[in-house]
Amino acid sequence: MNDTARRPRRHHATPVRHGRQRTPSAFGAILKTLAVVLAVALVSVGSVAAYAINNLAQQVSANAVDISGGEDAPPAPPLLGAFEGGFNLLVVGTDNDPNQGDSFGERDATLNDVNILLHVSADHKNAVVVSFPRDLVIAHPECTDPTTGEVFDAMSAQPLNEAFSRGGLACVNSTIENLTGLDINYAAATSFNGVIEMTNAIGGVPVCLVEPILDTDSGLDLPAGTSVIEGQMALAFLRNRHGVGDGSDLSRIASQQQYLSSMARTLKSANTLTDISKLYGLANAAAQNIQLSSSLASADSMVSLALTLKDVDLNNIVFVQYPSGDSVDYPNKVVPVTDLADALFAKVLADEPFTLGDDATGTGSTVVGTDPGATTEAPAETTAPEASVDPADPATDAPTTDVPPATTPEVIDGLKGQTAAEQTCANAFSD
């Protein structure tokens, strides 16, 4: 209350006339009632949304794990904006972790059976997704479990999927860094149940089979042609090995790349990106089923990741298998093909795009088409402007231009994989 309002009123001899109050109309009362109801509804919705977002953030933070190894944390992403520059993200699929349930059996230790590295270029125009075979025999660095402090000695030659048992997500991250020479600042791990819930939240992912596949080991039972899968059937498709290709883990990787390519197309479709219920369901499924590195465990980081990827052209998202081959020293395992791996990661480290050679499709997979919604961003051809030449002036006999010549990405022959724009079908197992 201001000073003016506190001053005593002056009394006048003239009688005060009281105005007649208007009788409120029924229509006006209804409008006021609706306004109150609307205000309460808006406040309630806002409160629920704020609670939901806060609840998700708490779940993510509570499960976060430090993968930095004592190094400085990466810069925080901008609020509701894309990452600045490029980044590397490791995604690990675990077997026998506490969240997978009893229906998948038990093992003596939790294994990192799926190991996928995502690299996004600094200009956000290209992305590379590298799948590492779980049975890849490589050197493992010394690891310290960030939750218990237990130290695990370095090993010279062991399968990649033993890394998680030696220190969780942080150790898998260090092992892939040691193999590739990359700095990986962001990582995430999910279980079987996580795959199921994430696929359900998206509304299913279309996959294609050349012939029907019935595999009792994984539970996969699908007809020839395209099927939209979710739940247990999506997990069965990703786990299936004996029913596809040559029955090897490399054939399974080709199926996983088909699935991930289709998921990328689904996530980039207008129906998915504009469906609030699907987006919230996806966030909720992620919070409950994915363990994130502390560098990624915030709403801002996850939003920035999505915003960075959403504009990458499908033709410029390349899925590749880490180059590997058989070895007499390690039966039923694979070892790195060093020259080809060096060529691949030289491009990734230099942040340079590349393309796959002919017949690059992975074992057990057949290309059937290209997504008509994808656009091919071929380098624009540049034409030098015509210069005015004076015949009398010898200096103008050879006109020059400062426009650089167009370049095309280098082809790396021998790599197996596909682009996100390519639609592939899985081949049934054959000897």
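The record above closes out task 2.4. Task 2.5 opens with a second protein, given below.
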Amino acid sequence: MIAGDYEGKRISSNFGIVAISNGFKNVQLNKDSIEGYEVMDESHSKSAVSAVGRGLVGGFLLGPVGLLAGLSAKTKGVHIVALQFKDGKKSLVEVDEKIFRCIIKNCF
């Protein structure tokens, strides 16, 4: 985790189930726990910069940390994803291609 409510926690994937290790309890990343997500690739980050300027999505992007992470997400096979949880928590995560695909599939 890069930033947000679960900063410093570990993300794992087993048999297509992606979860955040949060002490004794794991938080699964699926449509039951995730309200929405945004992939912070280079093109989304550039459009998000102007949106933040207009005040439309600033809170969701976790401020400057989210923008910096999104702008630096150039490594192939690595994805930066902003997650909005149904309980109101937010996190910015950096995941590999395998975990990224599982998150997208489980949130569909």
